[in-house]
């Protein structure tokens, strides 16, 4: 699993043709034939996506457990419990803090690296490779490597700090540090994806725009602020949205880097880990379903808010 | 996951060629075959026996050794053991497999978890007559361990061992500290003062700490000392009933050890073993499973039951046991093979004992080969009084109560929380678990 939802820039571009449709009756008949073509997909979609979603929602109103056969309807009990459960709110808070801490650097550093690559054409291939390479590493390897780097005493980071005469930091053992350590690891690991999106967008800016601006006497800074960044606006909207959704789904790195504990005092346990713990090791499928739907609502709200924000920006321009 | 837009495809219809169709159906057939985990290997006539376990440490190596012998003695059975990561990852796998009715044939669990894992729904009863046929009965296991395997009078688990919290001592350091007797054993101590006095002597030799403790897994030590102090804990009637004064006494003792520099303020499981092998500490209080680590390190060390610090020398124990995960479709032959395997493992647990665990099968513990096994047999008697975790679905090894306790008590060592705060938070966490509707 990676932390990114899978949409490529190409997929975000609406199909060009399609506005002008031939509405002759002849056409309509052939569209009925099309139904048969989408039927296999639609059936699988209904079976494996729509039905589980409905069934999950319904399960959230039961006391279903892996550990016993009988399941009964408990109304809003699970929802009342989750409102009063401090672990739900502290883990949701961790997820939100992680999102807030990780999204800005993931977008900004991705952009910075793309600008650098676009500039340094001669070593471009090398930069492209180095910046994107970490993204290709599986999460288990990333977590393992960084766990060793964060070790007290002999870990790369701490021995570097002590060599510089600084105090050691309990990267994974200090409750105040552990979430930040995961953020650093995640930025290193996944920034390559945003970088790639930005790089593609940068290469799509026509050179003549820059030439014209240069003729008008615009310096490099002016060109960056007045041409590059505005023309990257759509890409930024896409990158931010993908990044928010990906960061909200944080689980793998934390689980692996804290050996499944969620960090000292659960300081880094994200909401998905709590859902996992309630549902599987604790066997409470019903309760875990309810918490999942609460979290689903949070993701939807964040996505809508973000979408609104960017659409308004686009319109005001 | 990424959808990658692949290389540009040529437009137009894709005729389904015969070759593609053939390749596709072959692949589908292959998938279908791979999906059926064939129970009996038809070609060779050997029966497959799938075993799941959670032994990744030194005890895992012992299990591999036993399995090699088992395979040589059972050419008709194809043993397929799978090891998963200890704790939540293992139990997740076990629960999900059993919930689908298609787990393995036999699995290891911690006995302290048995009642919380869905008796009859996820774990099937063990046929005692079949077990007796292979030589394991109530008479061949200590009564306190056997009773823990019973739920409502029916047997659900076959105990392999009992593991305890023990005291390891480095002979070289302890000799210099003058805390060895004439036989080269650690001196007896009674009470907190006596014990801390010994730690001070050891600390003066190492120059660092006296005893190595797992400050991130302190439930084991807490429960041992709390039971020594006479404390009890129950969750009946929706209430956490515990003895606050005794708990505070124990937590305050742990705080003092760390504060005075007699024990570390910050040490996880691996560091606890490392502190002992690197002679940062001359003593180590930890589970008996570290014996293999210390032997490999070439230390001259001894082991003894945990001292009586707050009273009787009681110590927390738990057992590894075999269970039969629930089967959706009954298979008597598979159950027979599984029970025979478990009985065989018990009867050959002398190898297992080398890893530190005390065998549950009495004939092995009476075997001279075991009595000669030192230091592993030096703490065997403590099993009789082993203190199991309080009884609740959320209690036991790697269960929520233990995880919460470990997390909260770590602050007592580091100084981040006072014993009073830690107790209050533990009570709160336990009450939260009691209030949670039981999944079993």
From TrEMBL, chain A:
Low complexity: compositionally biased ranges: 1-19
One annotated GO biological process: transmembrane transport
Compartments where located: Cell membrane
Tagged with keyword ATP-binding: no
InterPro entries recorded: ABC_transporter_permease, MetI-like, MetI-like_sf
Main localization category: membrane
Name assigned to this protein: Carbohydrate ABC transporter membrane protein 1 (CUT1 family)
Organism of derivation: Allonocardiopsis opalescens
UniProtKB/TrEMBL annotation, chain B:
Domain of life: Bacteria
Organism: Allonocardiopsis opalescens
Protein name per its UniProtKB record: Carbohydrate ABC transporter substrate-binding protein (CUT1 family)
